Amino acid sequence: MLETLRKRCVLCGFESESISSSLKVCVRCLRERPVESLEIVRRTRARWRRSISFPVSPPRGGKRCLLCVNECEISQNGTGYCRVIKNVDGRLIFLTDNFDEAYLRYYLDPHPTNCVALPVCPEKDHRGFFNLAVFFAGCNLDCLFCQNIDHKYMIAGGTMRDGERVSVEELVRVAEQNRVSCVCYFGGDPVPWSIFTLKTSRKMRKRICWETNGLMNDSIAKQMASISLETGGIVKIDWKAFSPSVYEALTGVDGERAVERLKHNVELIAGMDERKEPPLLVVSTLIVPHYIDEFEVFNICRFLAQIDEKITYVLLAFAPQHLMHDLFTTSREQMKKVLEAARSSGLKNVFVENVWLLS
Hints:
By secondary structure, the protein is of the alpha/beta class.
């Protein structure tokens, strides 16, 4: 049962049932007192990550990985923050010891699927056909509210478990089944496995989509977008928060760098969209009670509207998971407020999904 008592921000004393015990601070303190607030949150995250033998923070002092904004510097026999990339004799390689296999689960999801881009998904009425859903182990973020936390347990303790080593050839073979009409990479996140996903996608003759946090490097962003543009797919970017301190508290990575990378990649991908239908880019935000409010949503949307007022933006209802299990689902009142904030920014295509979760 969810905790129903009002909890107190340890910095300012503000009381609310929507202050998570994993953060211990309110959103106002995160914005106005970021140094103190983030130090408190880091202690919670460090305990959790040590319990599953993950690096507490993006490592420094070794061979640099350039796949994402973290730019981990991985020491000999160490791993990156994602736990997917490791250093073996000075060479960066996947946890699988090669670039032709990935650690994942896959399944055939009948249309219409629970797609982040469902309002504009070209496959939503393709009944009798399937999406090949590819769920990767590992992620370059550590969201305290993670809705798919199994991706970390799949590689916890330095071993691979509760998943499969899947080769490029096997995944291509599954995708080529007649009733598979599209492929979607998610997790975790497909970015740490991007060498595998890009290679695999180029061998497939299906619509290719990505669900990602959008923190990949410039080259990977362009390649993902090019593949989706050519195949009729969509790049779905989950923008967690606009305020760097809120972003960092929720995800564990440098919020300043992450928000700047998001701005860059969103603008890059939007600028590549020569097709318009379906849109190449869809941006979403999970409406975490208390922490993702009108301020966060309005500023994300204002940035998007400045690029293109027709960018598709999806608001997602939150369900209590992982270390933020003590919160309630997103309330109808909060969703109404953030929806109004999104529309007031000038964006034309704003949608609400997971409405059945609203309380």
